[in-house]
Backbone:
């Protein structure tokens, strides 16, 4: 076993996999995952809505001609990973995955099953070091052409909002006009049913890794400063491109670099 893998403390990538119905998790992940459900019963719906958002957004962007995707905070391979969705529309799509969890690294081969005309690559890197991510992505992607920069359920692990904004700015400065920023992020906002996240996140931060934070609508919207938000703007990720769906306490939005 990779000696960075700890089985004595719950890891986000594995608990997320548990909530999605996957098998790549340990007893400690399932125990913490079940406790979080007791505080925030709809967390499984959040995880599924987040993945469905990924599917709708990547299908749409690939359909509009985007051929390069930088998916940071990839998570464990599951159904309809970014390259599968993108290459279904555009077999020549190029995808770079980035995560810092050692268990995701051990499963990276499953993320590297590109269609013949396209490319997928996996980079073991930390979102706190966006310059390294840009350098590694530039080995695979043509950074003079549009890129969809995706961070789904990731900036919530960057505790400082100014740092999270700075990560977004560094990444978006490295890609040209016509590129996209795709984000999802949990919230406590009651309008989206987020109240349960408060106790769930407090429990998480005492028992699991990495620490997590929620953000308000304004904080989430600020990540898109300088970008043009695609309709319908900042909404529950469940409702982006599916206006009738029940909301979950996770914002989703897509911005285009002008
Ligand atoms: C909630 S999961 C989301 C997975 C996937 N993006 C999705 O939406 O289904 C968050 C992922 O971010 C990864 N992650 C957390 N902090 C990170 C960091 N500082 N750098 C890179 N990846 C990180 C975790 O390992 C985990 O796989």
Residues:
């Amino acid at each position: 076993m990779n000696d960075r893998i700890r089985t004595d403390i719950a890891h986000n990538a594995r608990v997320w996999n548990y909530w999605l119905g996957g098998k790549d998790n340990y007893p400690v992940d399932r125990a913490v995952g079940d406790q979080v459900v007791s505080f925030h019963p709809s967390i499984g719906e959040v995880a599924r809505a987040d993945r469905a958002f990924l599917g709708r957004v990547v299908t749409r962007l690939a359909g509009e001609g985007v051929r390069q995707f930088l998916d940071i905070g990839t998570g464990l391979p599951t159904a309809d990973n970014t390259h599968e969705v993108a290459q279904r529309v555009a077999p020549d799509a190029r995808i770079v995955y980035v995560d810092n969890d050692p268990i995701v690294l051990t499963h990276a081969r499953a993320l590297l099953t590109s269609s013949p005309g396209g490319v997928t690559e996996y980079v073991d890197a930390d979102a706190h070091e966006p310059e390294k991510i840009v350098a590694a992505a530039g080995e695979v992607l043509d950074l003079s052409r549009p890129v969809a920069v995706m961070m789904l359920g990731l900036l919530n692990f960057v505790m400082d909002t100014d740092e999270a904004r700075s990560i977004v700015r560094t990444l978006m400065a490295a890609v040209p006009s016509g590129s996209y920023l795709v984000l999802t992020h949990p919230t406590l906002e009651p309008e989206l049913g987020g109240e349960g996240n408060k106790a769930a996140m407090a429990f998480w931060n005492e028992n699991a890794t990495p620490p997590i934070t929620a953000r308000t609508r304004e904080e989430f919207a600020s990540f898109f400063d300088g970008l043009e938000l695609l309709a319908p703007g900042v909404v529950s990720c469940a409702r982006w491109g599916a206006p009738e769906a029940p909301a979950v306490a996770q914002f989703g939005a897509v911005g285009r670099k002008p």
Notes: The chain has a mean pLDDT of 96. The chain has nine helices and ten strands.
